[in-house]
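About this split. The held-out portion is used to measure sequence recovery: a designer receives only the C-alpha cells and must propose an amino acid at every position. Recovery is the fraction of positions where the proposal matches the reference. Here is one held-out target exactly as it appears in the evaluation file.
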C-alpha cells in the first residue's frame, strides 16, 4: 500500500523533500554555529564571551585609576573571598559571574603575567585570579568599561575594581555609563589580604 501511495506523489515533490530537509538542516546548523555558546560560566548575556583562543586580562584607564578588564569588560574582586578561594556561588555568582578561563589565560597591556592564575570552581571549570584574587564580572555592567559595581556592598562585602598591582581600587569611578574615561583618582590596598 505504501508503494502505491508513493507512486501517486509527483516526482518533483519526491525529489524536493530531501533537498528541503537538507536545506533546513544546514540552516539550523549555521544559526547554531553563529550564536555564542553558553558554557554556564557567565549568567548574563551582557557579559563578554571568551574568545576561543583564550582569556586575556588587560588594563583600562578610568577616573578612579587604572583597572583590569577582560575583553574590555570590567572585572572585580570581592572582600569576602580568601587567597585563591572564591566564596561567591548561587545567587552571588548570578549577579557577579566569575571570570572563567577558556584556553590559555594571557596578560594584556599593563598586566603582570606572574599575577595571573586560576582556581577550580565547585561547579566545574577554572576561575581566573589575579594576585590571588578571584575575578568577577558584574551583571549590571552592560558594556565595556562600565564600572557600575564599584563599591557595591552585595552579599555582605564590598566589590572593588582591581588595580594592575593586584590591589583593590576603593576610589569611585565615573565610567558607570560606559563613556570615555581618563586616568586619575587613587587606588588603595583592599580585599583583606592584598
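Reference sequence for scoring:
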Amino acid at each position: 500500500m505504501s508503494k502505491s501511495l508513493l507512486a501517486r506523489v509527483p516526482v518533483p515533490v519526491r525529489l524536493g523533500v530531501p533537498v528541503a530537509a537538507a536545506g533546513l538542516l544546514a540552516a539550523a546548523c549555521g544559526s547554531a554555529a553563529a550564536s555564542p555558546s553558553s558554557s554556564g560560566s557567565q549568567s548574563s548575556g551582557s557579559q563578554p564571551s571568551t574568545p576561543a583562543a583564550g582569556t586575556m586580562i588587560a588594563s583600562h584607564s578610568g577616573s578612579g585609576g587604572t583597572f583590569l578588564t577582560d575583553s574590555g569588560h570590567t572585572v572585580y574582586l570581592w572582600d569576602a573571598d580568601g587567597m585563591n578561594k572564591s566564596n561567591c556561588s548561587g545567587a552571588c555568582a548570578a549577579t557577579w559571574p566569575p571570570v572563567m578561563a577558556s584556553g590559555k589565560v594571557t596578560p594584556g597591556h599593563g598586566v603582570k603575567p606572574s599575577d595571573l592564575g586560576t582556581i577550580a570552581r565547585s561547579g566545574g571549570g577554572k576561575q581566573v585570579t589575579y594576585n590571588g584574587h578571584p575575578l568577577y564580572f558584574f551583571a549590571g555592567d552592560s558594556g565595556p568599561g562600565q564600572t557600575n559595581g564599584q563599591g557595591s556592598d552585595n552579599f555582605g562585602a564590598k566589590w572593588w575594581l582591581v588595580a594592575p598591582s593586584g590591589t583593590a581600587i576603593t576610589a569611585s569611578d565615573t565610567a558607570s555609563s560606559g563613556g570615555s574615561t581618563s586616568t586619575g583618582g587613587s587606588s588603595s590596598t583592599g580585599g583583606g589580604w592584598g
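Annotator remark: The helical segments are 2-8, 11-34, 91-95.
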